[in-house]
Amino acid sequence: MLSIRMLADTDIEVADQIMRAAYRTTSSRMQVLRQNLLIQPDGWFLAELEQQPVGLVGATNYGPFAYAGSMSVLPSMQRRGIGAALLEHLLRWLELEQHCSTILLDATKEGASLYQRFAFQDEDTVGHWVRPASAFATHLGHHDDHIQPLQRETLPALTAFDAPYFGAARAIIFSLLTLNYPDQQSFVSYDEEGDISGYLFVNGRTLGPWVARRNEDAEALLRHVLVLSSAKPLTVLAPALNTHAAALLEQYGFHPQRILRHMRRGEPVGLRERTKIYGQASFSLG
Asked: I want to staple 200 with a disulfide (CB 3.0 to 4.6 A). Which of 46, 49, 221, 241 is the partner?
């Protein structure tokens, strides 16, 4: 018998095993899972078949919309309706308990048909870009005085800057990345008047969230980070609507690895400008 319950801290290891098997990767997702649980402790769910964990899914409720992700079912348990049951459970929780009827997600080619059955429709695509550690590190230039490390006291201003582009206030994301993971790097760019013009988080090997008002601000932030991080492989999850992002990433040695479908269920988000988003935080956080 299939049952679905809330994911707990003690489930992180088995959830990581399910995700690695489902996505056919050896890379651990434990830190990402812990981040997601800290952000939305009641929004992650584990499916069990005969008391054995077989799948998971979750979402973060930002208010105007929720972002769902990490849909994972063990390969040996796929095509048994487990993914549909997880999604139905998640949507019921979001709409009935969280009163959130607009849900966004990024779907793989294999998973898109499931979401279409639940009234999700295409809104954009997201490119998964990769820069190998061996990529060139030339013409990166010198330090830009308009770029500074993010300070805790800047978080309210950063949240206000970001909200019109992302479509919601995500102070909890910035606080988590800054306070709970101090080893992760984050930088803010300022214009001539001293106002924030962009920012970029180095979240492990992922560059994102990354938002900039102008393309030159985005490029300055990227150059600054590459000077510090050119020795390790990097990834960016860039919305296709931001055509400047693709050109910029190609210029600095990134290559597209795969394309995901950015989908929406419910009404469009009113205030949102994805053309200024150069990198998402993750596939599960947006």
From this structure: 221
